[in-house]
Each structure stands twice: as structure tokens, then as C-alpha cells.
Amino acid sequence: MSAGAARPTRVLIAPQAFKGSVDAVRVAAAIARGLRRAWPDVECDELPLADGGEGTVRALVHATGGSTRRSRVHDPLGREIDAEWGVLGDGRTAVVETAAASGLPLLRPEERDPRVTSTRGTGELLLEAAMSGAVRVDVGIGGSATNDGGSGMARAVGFRFLDRDGNELPEGGAALARLHRIEGQIDPRLLRITIEVASDVRNPLLGPEGASAVFGPQKGATPEMIAELDRALARYADVVERFVGRDVRSVPGAGAAGGLGAGLLAFADAKLRSGADIVMTATRFAERAARADLIVTGEGRMDAQSAYGKLTGSVIAKAKALGTPVVAVVGGVAGDVDPLFAAGLGAIEVTSEGAASLEDAMRRGEELIVAAAERLARKL
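^ that's the sequence the OP posted. Answer follows.
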């Protein structure tokens, strides 16, 4: 949108969360407040988005007029917690996020140990969603604290993991090195639903680009642990293939969430889909974007990778296809963002202007987003 162009009357506001600072719902509301300071008569359609990680449930429920639920499940270390999930506005689609039951933020830093953490709570949420009457469950699998290949999830829905002597293995990724056979069958309540996994991670299960090597360090894994966990997942993949007749080790996305992608493929017959595609379909993004004169997106940290398969890149691509100007309010910019401008982004406004430090910027997140959106509107 160039200087001197007609002032927009309808703006679609479609940001992600500023992680660690402001969730996507509040980001969208803050941008709307900033735009109205410059354009008092503007009509704002707030459409908070998410990429499959923390905040996916709230963003999708908000965007579709759905409802949130809370269920008692187990956290990554087996403690009981209340986890949030949702039913979308259509009443037929439920949404579950791994971060709510098996996520890294549920653990203190000293508790992080992917050798013992489990995805059992994610499986328990799947069962809760199935009992809601939904016919489809979208599972966002970002932000996990686990590296168990989805075996904890599989235990929750009906499977047992046994060693050579027939003893049940303990929870966690390390114990899978002793896996000899799998028994059981999926809970019948999951047979009547379709499970779609929202993830833009394309990593395989094993190897230098696999679950343990790439994501293990942020979950507390040392180099020695990474090697141990990769060997354990290799054993797991062998036994899973014998049990279900499917090789999941090299499927793109199988390594997401510490191998939960592989577990959902093998035990729940899930379909792995682009998180951006699932979210944008569920929120009717294209329909709402077609009515807008301007689209404002945003995220906490924008970099060159935002243009490739990520949610921000999808928003920009769809805006370009519609011929609608698109701009961004972001917390910060890292590296070369020329690919985003080449893809169709018109302008970037950074919220950290006026902040004393990163900590200050995160603490004052909403206030700074409002100010940045106002600055952006006045420049346009």
C-alpha cells in the first residue's frame, strides 16, 4: 500500500503470538487498537493465528466462535494437571495442542530430561476430544518436552510396550532401547474420528536431522543423551514397523515433537499436514481476506525462514494472490528479510522501538504493539 493510496476501510488483522510475551488473541486486539488511533473509522476483523504450538487452541477457538474445555491429564513427568483443548465453531472439529499436556513450559528448567518425559497426556487429550462428539481432531504438536516417539500417547489410547521378558517399559524415550514387542489396539472411540496433525516441521525421526539431534538440546539433552535417544528411537522404529507394517522412520515430519509425528502416524492413522494450511482452512482465512482492503500480520521474531512454509509466509502468499496489500507488526527482525518483501510484504514495523531492553519489550508487549500499529498506519 503506497503513500497516497486510499485509506483502508476494512483491515484483516492476522498475527501469531509474540511468544513469551503476548498471545495471538491479545496481539490482534492490540494491533486493532493502534490502527483505530490513526484511522478512527476503520473496520477491523481480528483473526489471531497459530502454527500448531502453544496458543493454537485459543487462536482457533476465538477465530471460529468455538468453546474451550479443560480436562485432567498427565504432564510430561506423570503429574496430574488440567489441560485446555477446544471445540471449534462448527461443533464437529476439536483441537488439541501437545504443548498443553506434554509441553516444555510445564517443566522447570532442572526437570527437563527427554529420556524420561512422556506424551501420555497428549493421548489422554485425544480421547477427551473423541468423546466430545467431534468427527475430526486437529492436533498441534509444537512445543513438546518429549522425545518418546509418541509411545506415551500410544499407551494412553490402548497400546503396551514390552521388553524381552514381557515387562512393561517405563515412560520416556530412553527405555525404548529395550523395546521388544508392542501389544494392544487403539481405543474404539478413536476409530470413528479423523486425526490431522498440524506441523510445519519436516524432520525425519532419526539421524542428524532427526528428532533427537535437532530438538533434543532445547529439551535438556546433552550430546551423550542425543546419541542414546537416537539409538532408542531406531529400535522403536524397527519394532513399530513389525507391529503396524509401516516404516515411519523417514517420513517428513515424523520427527516432530520428539517423534510424536511418527507415533500418531503409526498408532492413530493420523495425517500430517501443514500447520499453516490447517489453521488457515479452519479460520476461513481466504474468505475473510477477500473482504479486506489491507492485511496486517505479525509475529514475535521475523526472519528469512518466515517466508518458507511458515504461517507468516502463507499469509503473505495468500494476500499477494488476492492482490491485497499486506504489512507486518513484529517484535524483532533477525537476518535478511528480503525474501519476505520479494514475496509481497509491503512494510514491517518493529515494536521494540522505545524499549530499554528485550525484557522491557516483552513486559510491555501489548503497549508497544499498539504504538507500533499506530506508527505503521500513519506511515501508510
